[in-house]
Amino acid sequence: MNSDSHIAMEHEIDREGFAVAAGVIDASEQRQLDAVLGTTGQPGRRGLLAAPAIAAWARSERLLDLVRPHLPSEPLPVRGIYFDKSPEANWLVPWHQDLTLAVRERVDVPGFGPWSRKDGLPHVHAPVEFLQQMLTVRLHLDDTDATNGALRVLPGSHRMGRLPADRIQALRARQPEYLCAVSAGDAMLMRPLLLHASGRSTSPRRRRVLHIEYAGCALPAGLQWHEAA
Question: Are 95 and 221 in contact (CB under 8 A)?
């Protein structure tokens, strides 16, 4: 990606909270990733940075080159999730922001909380200032549209801080959503605080996405990432 493209994407992410980079991986690389990720028969799988092939992709210059302009320091991959939406594993996701971090153990730190457990792992809500220094890359292995559960977003909502349920409802009532129709091989970059949702698939096609979260700042003393690559 040239410098002009980087600048345009940086402005788009700052303004809208997301952007799409076309043709990040080719058809052969998509097949290689598919072979590593396999078929889950479930909505998805977590802890993917423990897989050497996925960690290598997360640390690749190709992805780091996409992320660097949008973070204050060298990007650190901190979580990998595989979403595999299909007729056998179909679900919807209500409107929300990505507020939690997966860490090794609970350590009470000012500004971090409340705590919860997901898949047996401790998760903690991070302060807005911390989340603003993170970026997610979603690598698409399939074409996504309205029929197979493409992500829907509220552009610009990442600039509004942490939003309670009533504020989310009010925004939904007055602001049109944007459907992120993304082609196989493309990467969608998004801020964690961007409001997003997805519907159930009504198509026989799968919707496979490798979701990698990057941090541009260190955790406070005592907290450790569960799966930093």
Answer: no
Per-residue pLDDT tens over the stretch 31-72: 999 999 987 777 789 999 999 999 999 999 999 999 999 999
Question: What's the Rg (C-alpha) of the chain?
Answer: 17
Q: What is the pTM of this model?
A: 0.95
The Cα–Cα gap between 138 and 210 comes to 6
Instruction: Check: CB of residue 133 under 8 Å from CB of residue 71.
Output: yes
16 within domain boundaries: yes
CB 187 within 8 A of CB 138: yes
Stretch (H or E) spanning 11: helix 3-16
Q: Which residues contact 165 (CB under 8 A, 6 or more apart)?
A: none
Output the CA–CA distances (angstroms, integers) from residue 36 to 53, 54, 56, 138, 171, in the order listed: 7, 8, 12, 16, 39
In a domain, residue 74? The reply is yes
* Residue 70: closest CA among 156, 180, 187, 190: 190
Q: How far apart are alpha carbons 178 and 157 in whole angstroms?
A: 12
Maximum C-alpha span of the chain: 47
Quote the domain boundaries for residue 161: 3-95+133-215
Angle formed at CA 166 by CA 43 and CA 131, multiple of 5 degrees: 60
**Positive or negative: CA dihedral 152, 192, 125, 48:** positive
Distance CA 89, CA 42 (A): 5
